[in-house]
Design goal:
single chain; 252 residues; 10 helices
């Protein structure tokens, strides 16, 4: 029998893990930004760096569910623009991780995301198209920031949500593009987490297996929420959750 005592110190840790798994499942089938709400609590439960290794396999499993359900909805042109820069963001994150304290780094990221969010909301309020989205550097910039934040703390959800909202992507295309992008990104991260940061091992994988039922429940809930929300309300809901997610980077 696997000994979880090195990672699980109380029932509270299990509760945080299961809530995280539920939100991971929901986020991968349409309720964007929820995963980031649990990141600070997962970091407190497992430790900041170890928590990324606990969460990543859950994300990878949920990615398969999201892609399986929305496999024909992705806008691959956007994914191609984002993905190479995201991989470059991995390298930047590995370099910066040794130079900048985690707390200061999260506040810097929060400020960047807040600025981008403010520009997007201003554009929507004025009823104008985002003229920057046609620039050659717009997609790669978000890809770089997405790869950077996902490597540091699995916190790229708001980055991609802001990008997809800013280009006014329809609801189902939004979810499908998000699912495929993070499937590619998270599976590319696995070797780095295993061999560079040593965050994933047989014990953490066994812990994740215990949380899989909650991922599945969350995925079903996410599909249901996307179905019942009209296009306009989906954008409002996603924007609101993303704003809260960005705020979490300042508070923790």
């Amino acid at each position: 029998m696997t000994d979880f005592s090195a990672y699980i110190e109380s029932e509270w840790v299990w509760a945080v893990l299961f809530l995280t798994a539920l939100f991971v499942g929901m986020s991968k089938t349409g309720v964007q930004g929820l995963t980031l709400l649990t990141v600070p609590f997962l970091a407190m439960a497992f430790g900041a760096k170890q928590s990324t290794g606990v969460m990543l396999p859950l994300l990878c499993f949920a990615d398969l569910i999201g892609v399986g359900y929305y496999r024909r909805r992705a806008e691959w042109g956007y994914i191609v623009r984002l993905l190479p820069a995201a991989v470059a963001g991995f390298g930047v994150a590995l370099w910066v991780d040794n130079l900048v304290p985690a707390a200061q780094f999260k506040h810097l990221l929060g400020a960047c995301l807040a600025l981008v969010m403010a520009v997007m909301l201003w554009s929507q309020w004025k009823g104008k198209e985002n003229v920057l989205s046609d620039r050659w550097w717009y997609g790669p910039l978000f890809g770089l920031l997405g790869g950077f934040t996902t490597m540091i703390g699995n916190a790229a959800g708001p980055v991609l949500a802001i990008f997809l909202l800013s280009v006014k992507m329809p609801k189902l295309a939004f979810v499908g593009t998000n699912a495929w992008f993070f499937l590619c990104v998270n599976y590319l991260k696995l070797p780095l987490q295993v061999f560079a940061w040593h965050n994933i091992n047989l014990t953490t994988l066994a812990i994740d297996v215990c949380a899989i039922p909650f991922v599945i429940i969350g995925a079903v809930l996410g599909v249901h929420i996307v179905k019942i929300l009209p296009e306009r309300e989906f954008r409002i809901f996603t924007t609101a959750v993303t704003i809260v997610s960005v705020a979490m980077m300042f508070l923790f």
